[in-house]
Each structure stands twice: as structure tokens, then as C-alpha cells.
Amino acid sequence: MTQEVYEPTDITPDKDGGVIKQILRAGDGNESPVPGDKVSVHYVGTLDDETQFDSSRERGQLFEFDLGQGKVIKAWDLGIATMKKGELAKFTCQAKYAYGEVGSLPKIPANATLIFEVELFSWKGEDLSMKNDESIIRHITTKGRGWKNPNEGAMVKVHYVGRHGENVFEDREVEFNIGDGVMSNVIEGLEIALKRMKEGEKCRLDIKPSMAYGSKGNPDLGVPPDADLVYDVELRSFENVKENWEMEPQEKLEQSRIAKEKGTKFFKEGNYKVALKYYDKCQKNLEFETTLSGEDEEKKKEMILLAHLNMAMCCLKIDQPAKVRDHCNKALELDDKCVKAYFRRGQAYFAGSDFDLAKKDFEKVCELEPDNKASKNQVKICEQKIKHFEKKEKARYVGMFDKFAAEDAKKPQNLFADGFEEIGEWDNKMAHGMLPLDQECEAFGEKMPERSNVSQPLGDD
Questions:
Q1: What is the pTM of this model?
Q2: 195, 314, 330, 342 from 326: Cα distances, Å
Q3: How many CB atoms lie within 10 A of CB 231?
Q4: H/E element holding 25?
């Protein structure tokens, strides 16, 4: 079978002959990597006189880089974006698409034409996930305009198509504020990705279940549990809101009030993670505001206090006791007589089986509110837990000592009454070269201890 011969092609946007590509072996499929993808290639680089100046094959290690980010010569960003998986191609690159008038001495002279033989092995998209766990992968298909991205609270207009396998389960255009995506039935992974997009950008998102519909899926849309999803997204427009540092103090107070109300709405609906996000936004709007005074300053402190108390409650609901304690501690810094902070911190200690510390917090609530029946009841429960723990520990140690005693009874009875085996008097035969005690003391300028029939306790030197 004769291998197909491909004609050299000018792949520069201006068709100026700056990068000529010739396919040596065709690749598989129809997809090519896009800007932002991390590509893996092997290459051999030569000058136009066939002098080799570099080779990843000789190093035995694939070369990886982020495509379209200016991290390699311009010819590579252009050329590899045209390749298919498994393709082998030759690129003839004029100097202005390579190292230009300067070159890269000592191997590449000025104004050098370079020839690269490149094989594309694989590529993967840009990881946009907060935890760098590849739960949100972006493949840009059309670059956006400008340099701005939507900020938290920005009004975005977006069109997207959601797919699971061959099944298209969503095709919609929607406008919403970043941060309020859940109110418009927009999944978390898509909302996070939108904050990294430019106006007019089109991309494909590969989203894992943890950033989509999770283990429950979405029966209404036909999305099964633990489903990997693909979204084709276009950010058509957006309008940013003021950043926190751009707001006037009164604006910050108002935005915190709105965030608190949204948090309470989601808390009542049982959506504690989303509620937590809004309560956090509530306190962050005000935590560094120092210009308020009088009644407004008191409103600020009250808002931050309530935010930490509500975040503590959310963390209790999602079983994060360490974070409960953190929020309660911050609340107590603002009000050291806040009974809710003591009570919720007591609940967190109890959840972590720190019954002594939990009891102290519940007792503090009783001190501040003598009629608080819930705390009185919790004190009694803590006391029962402590007694049960002590009883259990005592029984465990008694059993341990009984076991040791039984094992000792089986040993040969050649011990002194104090439990130490007879080893005889210490003398120089037991440690060759050691001086007698009186000579050793004399050598170190010390006095011999006086003999006494009374045993002396061990003390400090």
C-alpha cells in the first residue's frame, strides 16, 4: 500500500510563507489541540543546512507546553494547532516566526530558517478547577476579545449546550449574576469557568460530577448519577460590578445585607454550601472597612457577627466541626458574651468527642443565660459521656495490668523484692578502663558522696 503524499502548505494567517507545513504521516480523527491545551510532542530541530541543534527523541522524553500562550516560538503555536493526534509533520520556519534577527546562540544563528519534524502524541485542556483536580477542563475553540473577565456579581449573558455522551440535555441562553448561578439552574463548574472567559469566547468544557450534578444526577434533565458532562459555551457579553475596594462604605453595608438575605434563603432551603458562600461574602464585604463610625460601625460589627454565627451553623450542618470552631472564635472576638457562639462551639467540640471542652462551653451558656434549658441538658449529656469514657478507660487499664501480671507470673522467680535482676557489684571488670569511683571524683574535682542508710530521692543536679 502506497503512503499518501501531502503537498507543503503555507499555514500563516497572512500567507507570507513564514511557516510551511508538510504532513509526513496523517493523524487520527478530526480534532486538533486549541489554545490553552497542554500538548505532548517529540521533535527534531535542524538548520536549513541539516545541522541538528536539538532533539527530544535523543533525550528520550516528550516535550510538553501550553499551546497558544507564547511559551514557544510563534511557528510552533501556529503549526501544532493544525495537527491531529499521532500526526507527524515537517515545519519550515522563517526567522520572524522563530528566533528572528537575534537567534539563540550558540546553536541558532541570527536570521536562521529552522526545520522541525514534530510528532503530536496527545493533549489535554486547561485545568480551571479550584483544587487543580481536573474537574473543570477548558478547550478554547474561539478566542475572546479584550483582557477582562467577569468578576463576582457580574451580569453575564451566555449560551451553552450541555451533553452527556450523545444526549443533549440542555440548549439554552441565560442571563444571571456570577455567584447566583444556582438560582438560574447553572451548575457550579460552568459558573467557575465563566469567570475565566473573555467576551465572545467559545470553548468546550469537560466537567466532572463533583462540579456538576454529583452522585444524584438530574433526573429532570436525563443526567444519570456520577455523569461526566461536556458543555459548549459562548460568553456573549458581561457587565462587571464594582469591586469591594471601589465601593463606598454605605454600598458595602447594603451589599452585605443583600448577601445575608440570599444566604438565609438558601439555608432555609437546605442548600447549606451555597448559603455558606453568601454569608462569607457578607462578612468579606465589611471585614476591612475602617471608615464607618457611630451607628454604621455598630451595624457593621453586627453584620459580621451574624455572618460568622450563620457560617458556624452551616458548617455544623455539613459536618465541618473545625470550621465551626473557627467561626465561633471570630464571633467571640467581636462579642465575648455571645451565647450562640459558645453553644455552637460546644456542639462542634461534642461532635469531635472533646466532651470536657464542650461541657465548659455549655456551662458558659448557662452562666450567661441561667434559664437556657438546651445548654443545661447538654451539660448533663457531656457529664454522662465523660463518666462513660472514664469508666471505659479504667476497665481497659485494669485489664492491661492483669494481663501484665499474668505474664510476669510465668517468668522465672530470680528477681529481688524490688523487681530488678541481681547483676552484682559494679567494678572495673565490667567497664574496662573505668576509674574507681573515688579516683574518678578526684579527677573531676568532686567529693565522694557520704554513705547513708537513708535512700535519697532523685533530684536536680
A1: 0.63
A2: 29, 13, 6, 12
A3: 21
A4: strand 19-25
